[in-house]
Write a structure and sequence with these properties.
mainly alpha, Four Helix Bundle (Hemerythrin (Met), subunit A), binds fe (ii) ion
Length: 136
């Protein structure tokens, strides 16, 4: 079940700072998957989730700062997606603390799915606007 997502050059959004942060987020998620898929370690899970959320805040703030420099029409919606992903990660990680292996797998699947649908999905919608505004 555990297959890490490997960074590909085609995942680039054309801004080095954002690409670097997207790579670091991927490392956090892959590490979490590797640590937790076979053996549950409550202390480690909570530490890894905290690190991931902390870094996600840093990234979201940076990305929103870039987007605010463009006339991105979906900025508000995009910010809401960021908030929602933090809330969902927290909610699922709380369930893991009280739950079963299935809750743990649910969290891991969510994070992997989030990376695919957000970073490799909706984040790509802003690329033309960054380009049109000469932001690199
Ligand atoms: Fe992003
Ligand atoms: Fe985003």
């Amino acid at each position: 079940m555990y297959t890490p997502i490997e960074w590909q050059d085609e995942y680039s959004v054309g801004v080095k700072e954002l690409d670097d942060q997207h790579k670091i987020l991927l490392d956090f998620i892959n590490t979490l998957l590797k640590e937790q898929v076979n053996e549950y370690n409550a202390a480690q899970l909570s530490e890894s989730v905290s690190s991931l959320i902390h870094y996600a805040y840093v990234h979201f703030a940076t990305e929103e700062r870039y987007l605010a420099q463009t006339p991105f029409p979906d900025l508000k919606q995009h910010i809401l997606e960021h908030v929602d992903s933090i809330m969902k990660t927290l909610e699922l990680s709380l369930k893991v603390k009280e739950g079963t292996k299935n809750n743990r797998l649910e969290l891991l699947e969510y994070l992997k799915g989030w990376y695919s649908s957000h970073v490799l999905g909706i984040d790509r919608l802003y690329i033309p606007l960054l380009q049109a505004n000469g932001i690199k």
